[in-house]
Amino acid sequence: MAKIKGEVKFGEQLTTRGHLFRSALTSGPGIFWVTFFLLVPLIWIGVISFLTRTEVGGFERPFTLENYTRFVGFGFFGFDMLYPQIILRSILLGTGTALLCMITAMPLAFFIAALPTRYKNLALTLVLIPFWTNLLIRTYAWQILLAPESPITRLAVWMHLTEPGHPLYPSAMAIYIGMVCDYLPFLVLPLYASVEKIDWTIAEAASDLGADGPRVFWHAILPQVTPGLVAGIILVLIPATGQFVIPDLLGGAKTVMLGNAIQQQFQQSRDWPFGSAITFVGMAAVMLGLWAYARVAGEKGGEII
Amino acid sequence: MATETPAIQVENLVRRFGEVEALSHVSVSIRKGEFFSLLGPSGCGKTTLLRCIGGLDIPDEGVIRIDGTDAREIPAHKRPVNTVFQSYALFPHLTVSDNIAFGLRMKNVAKQEIADRVKRVMDMVEIAKLADRKPAQLSGGQKQRVALARAIVNEPMVLLLDEPLGALDLKLRKQLQVELLQLQRRLGITFIYVTHDQEEALVMSDRIAVMSTGKIVQMGEAEVLYEHPRTRYVSQFLGSCNLLDATVTQRTGTGALVQTPVGPLRVEFRQGGSEAAAHDKFTLAIRPEKVSLLPVSEGPAENRVKVKVEELIYIGSETHYVLRAGQQRLTAEAMNVKVGSQGFDIGQEALVYLPAAGLLVLDD
Q: Is the Cβ of A304 closer than 8 Å to some Cβ of chain B?
């Protein structure tokens, strides 16, 4: 009896103290990183967003909501829609990019999954190449490709999509070309992982039960790839909403996005409290979207990601 | 009765996967209301045949008629057949009742009618309590019932079942065999049942087609197949058989006297039996339970063989014996009807009686 008791004690030690030590050892660096390089700066920015800017570009008390009211439109010079417009424009860019990536990635993921095994890795590597290229180089390359005398522009002229002598950029289309090129891998990879795992007998069952092609896709295939699709959309939506380099370079630097509005406040205007407020509103908008999704997915009883 | 249109008629069906013929010129006709089994080892083509009937696979040659209509141009979703898949293939994101309602929804049946029919079928297969569960929350047997309900709620003309009980444990399998059979009798739907379990096929089927390497090797009622197998393959696949090489020494009207490794035997040829009976050399088969083991002093005058008990397997209700007669091994199975000792021990000498009616002439 006593012997058994001793064994139990040893077991308990293993699962409590020993286990805690080992898990701290393995997860410690990660926790340290997240705490000191993400959580603490984030809280710091949150605090700054409620402070007042000093004359020389620092910040001081008293605490104020002024930065937020200014963002919503009640600035120094009366009501102004500038910042609400910027955030809407950025969200539009993000959702537009996510949508285009989704339309492009869906057939691509199925195509790659259907390839013979030896070509799959090659195809995935091709998808990843833009991802490995520097953002600026990639974006400048599009400027060249879309220039007035480029083959692509000539092709567009030949197809009567544009007039001779006109470049294809700067334009909204050029922005979206650059954006899709940049973010497609983020959607293709998780989606592809889901497509690879599809149980095709479920599609056969749907067909057997009277579903035609589109309905087999909708009822039996789409629900199976939803986790990958949602993960991919989130991965595209969040960074694409904050993107400002591509709209600058391919859109003619005429429009201010959320990203460069923040950059402006922290650098040129030296208004850290206001810059922090914009950052927080942008984050809140994205969080709100994710929360709404989690609610809907939760109600349907599905997995969240 | 003879002129009734068959539920399923398959003619000369060929399906190739690369170089391999999964089905080579299969022809079969399945009557309405019949419980028809396709029996064979894995890779024999039975599932491929089922999938071709369901429209999930397209044959390379041949014709499939469903209720007299050529089904070659009819896609799977328009065929009046439903399938119960081996892996169940339930929709993981739908509840049990939504799974069952799926087929009716696809056919745009009125909402109220869907609700009624789904409820009736769930009562029939006793899963009414599981209506709001997701497939992941079900046991194997419950999934099986849902898969069955999802198919029969559509009132198909033919139900195709692909080893539906294959993944279940023995006890549950036996219970569901009985339930499936009762359900089939009650609904009157034609069942085509794929299985590799010979006992399951014997228990359930009106008729069985035994398949091997893409061909149907023998087809008939369970009893006929068991009592009169035509080939070594069928005799070994359905139960087990003692096989003896025989050479005819004298023909005697309806039978013959033959020489075998266990000595001379008298054989009766069956009307419409094997064509090999016309040859001078053929293979004889006899089921172990047709072999009677007797004490040395007893037994009829003919077809007696002196043996030695080599091994003895006691399994309660019956005892299986492995016997040796010269170079030939024989197996015998005897019901333990006597109270107490059954009277034979290992090493003991005995006689076996091989009744002429139990000796079957095989084609190969």
A: no
| Per-residue pLDDT tens digits for B86-145 | 999 999 999 999 999 999 999 999 999 999 999 999 999 999 999 999 999 999 999 999
Distance in angstroms (rounded) separating the CA atoms of residues B26 and B10: 7
β-partners of residue B281 are: B247
In angstroms, what CA-CA distances link B361 with A182, A230, B115, B218, B224? 76, 66, 57, 15, 14
B207 plus B271 within the same structural domain: no
Greater confidence, A131 or A107?
Answer: A107
Q: Which amino acid, one-letter code, is at A58?
A: G
Domain end among B199, B230, B261: B230
- Summary mean pLDDT of chain A: 84
Q: Which residues pair with B320 in a beta bridge?
A: B313, B333
Q: What is the CATH number of the domain that holds B168?
A: 3.40.50.300
Contact criterion met (CB below 8 Å) for A139 and A250: yes
Question: Which structural domain range is residue B208 located in?
Answer: 8-230
Within a domain: B39? yes
Residues B223 and B244 in one domain: no
User: Can you tell me which residue has the tokens 């170079």?
Assistant: B327
Residue the block writes with tokens 């894995």: B42
Q: What is the pTM of this model?
A: 0.80
pLDDT band, very low/low/confident/very high, at A76 (cuts 50, 70, 90): low
Q: How many domains does chain B have?
A: 2
B323 plus B181 within the same structural domain:
no
As for the ipTM of the complex, it is 0.83
Q: Which of B185, B202, B230 is the last residue of a domain?
A: B230
pLDDT above 90: percentage of residues in chain B: 57
Digit-coded pLDDT (tens) for B200-219: 999 999 999 999 999 999 99
Residue of B nearest to A226 (CA): B93
My answer on whether B205 and B132 are in the same domain is yes
Does the beta-carbon distance from A208 to B106 stay under 8 Å?
A: no
| B91–A205 C-beta distance less than 8 A | yes
pLDDT in tens, A169-207: 788 888 999 999 989 999 999 999 999 999 999 999 999
B137 has a chain A CB within 8 A of its CB: no
Q: In this predicted model, what pLDDT tens digit does every residue of A27-49 receive, in sequence order? A: 888 899 999 999 999 999 999 99
Dihedral, A204, A205, A207, A210 alpha carbons, nearest 10: 170
One domain, residues B285 and B190: no
Domains plus CATH for chain A?
2-48 (no CATH), 83-299 (1.10.3720.10)
One-letter amino acid at B300 equals: P
Q: Between β-strands B281-286 and B318-325, what pairing exists: parallel, antiparallel or unpaired?
A: unpaired
With respect to residue B235, please indicate whether it lies within any of the assigned structural domains. Answer: no
C-beta atoms of B134 and A301 within 8 A: yes
Among chain A residues, the shortest Cα distance to B89 is held by: A202
Q: How many CA atoms lie within 13 A of B170 on its CB side?
A: 1
B184 and B313 in one domain? Answer: no
> What residue in B sits closest to A227 (Cα-Cα)?
B93
> Between chains, do A209 and B82 touch, taking CB under 8 Å as contact?
yes
Q: Are residues B62 and B183 in the same domain?
A: yes
Report the Cα A40 to chain-centroid distance in Å. 22
Q: Where do runs of H (alpha helix) occur along B25-110?
A: 46-54, 96-106
In a domain, B118, yes or no: yes
| Same structural domain, B221 and B253 | no
Tell me the chain B residues in contact with residue A197 when contact means C-beta distances shorter than 8 Å.
none
Paired with B70 in beta bridges are B65
In a domain, B2, yes or no: no
